[in-house]
Amino acid sequence: MEQCVVNLAMLDRALWPIYEKVVAGERLSLEDGRVLFETPDLIGAGQLAGIVRAAKNGDDAYFIINQHINYCNICALGCDFCAFSAKEGDAHAWVYSVEEIVERARRGVAIGAREFHVVGGLHPTLPWEYYLDMLRALKAEFPHVHLKGFTAVEIDYFARKFRKSYEEVLTELIEAGLNSMPGGGAEIFADHVHDQICKQKIRWDKWSEVHRTAHQLGVKSNATMLYGHVESAEDRLDHMLRLRGLQDETGGFMTFIPLHFHPENTPKLSHLRHATGQTDLRCIAVGRLMLDNFDHVKAYWTMLGLKLAQTALHFGADDFDGTVTEERITHFAGADTPQLLPVEQIVRLIAETGRRPVERDTTFDIVRIHDSNAGRDSVQR
Ligand code: V47
Ligand code: SF4
User: Fold this and answer.
1) pTM for the full predicted model
2) Ligand nearest to the CA of 62
3) CATH pick for 54-64+144-380 out of 3.20.20.70, 1.10.3720.10, 3.100.10.10, 3.40.190.10
């Protein structure tokens, strides 16, 4: 296994007590988190994150063959940071019929998809049966494909619109074929940030209640954090600590996913500059260190870009997400990453970092271990 040796003489002295805690497997405090965000020694913070990553996942770096299905972009909200949503009647608005959804799914399965990531806007008039029929149709034709669907924001919307409890909504979706939930809609939980970027959206109380309910029903989920807009390091730490507390309670989260904000084409935040690579890698590293009860940290290449996502594997990330066919949310906001990353390219990016490329399913069961030497020839290019 890869050795995570830290040369203490090279490490910022402020990180020494954190190093001691990490090696002893002790939980880090809010104050430790502040030190990690403030230290100029980003490499040192990344090395500490690497210790945790290696203890949890060894040399393995995971990915999945997956397909995104954004069933509609019409949304009753209109978050200030969202370039994806449209209003009914807009030229770029769409709602896929169940048949169209299945047709898209077929294309994904043809290239090996074993997960559909199904999310959409909060549509004002679609009936409840549409969502159930969509899942039933996908499950009927592709029983072996895992259905990861609907953010907490959508679940809350369904509950209010169709006058059901979270438990009723989730139970019916599970019966129709839902297997797990993605981590979206979390943004930044601190109210003062939330109100600046998505005032109409559910807050932490409801977001956490939806995930708690899902976990109680045996549905695993992920948790995201959208960074690089108006939040501070303190807000990010507050976000992480809330997630850590909920995970202590339920144990139902699989992966923490820091999401790099893309400002282009957004309604009110297009004047902001992108977070820098420093911030990207620091969010990954601090997330890995603070969220000691999450097994996985994802480098979501669609938002990070391929080069930073690859580098993030040296800063605590152990998951590369997947092939991600037909992602719309980030691409409407200006992302220039590909729509589809072929397996060979993911394998090469992972192998080049010295890690073992492991193809997984949604719940991290191993599907196939790929060639760890796949990166060698690229070194010569
Ligand atoms: O909730 C919206 C974010 C999220 C922008 O669980 C934006 O496996 C950047 O949650 N720039 C949806 N981000 C995506 C998401 C996700 C992605 C991949 C894997 C998983 C998982 C979950 O995208 C939204 C919001 O936080 N978002 N607009 C934007 N302009
Ligand atoms: Fe709607 Fe989600 Fe976009 Fe907000 S982020 S406007 S809830 S699609």
Assistant:
1) 0.97
2) 1
3) 3.20.20.70
Q: pLDDT averaged over the chain?
A: 95
> 67 near 33, Cβ under 8 Å?
no
Using 50, 70 and 90 to split pLDDT, how confident is the model at 262?
very high
Residues with CB under 6 A from ligand 1: 81-83, 151, 182-185, 187, 222, 224, 226, 257, 259, 261-262, 266, 300, 303, 321, 329-330, 333
Cα distances from 331 to residues 184, 258, 261, 281, in angstroms, run 16, 17, 12, 21
pLDDT recorded at residue 380 = 41
**pLDDT per residue over 190-241, tens digit each?**
999 999 999 999 999 999 999 999 999 999 999 999 999 999 999 999 999 9
Which residue's CA is the nearest one to ligand 2's atom 6?
Answer: 78
Question: Hunting for tokens 């620091």 — which residue is that?
Answer: 282
Phi-psi region of 78 (alpha: psi -120 to 50; beta: other; left: phi over 0): left
Question: Tens digits of per-residue pLDDT, 321-338?
Answer: 999 877 888 888 888 888
Residue 379 is predicted with a pLDDT of 45
Domain ranges of the chain: 54-64+144-380
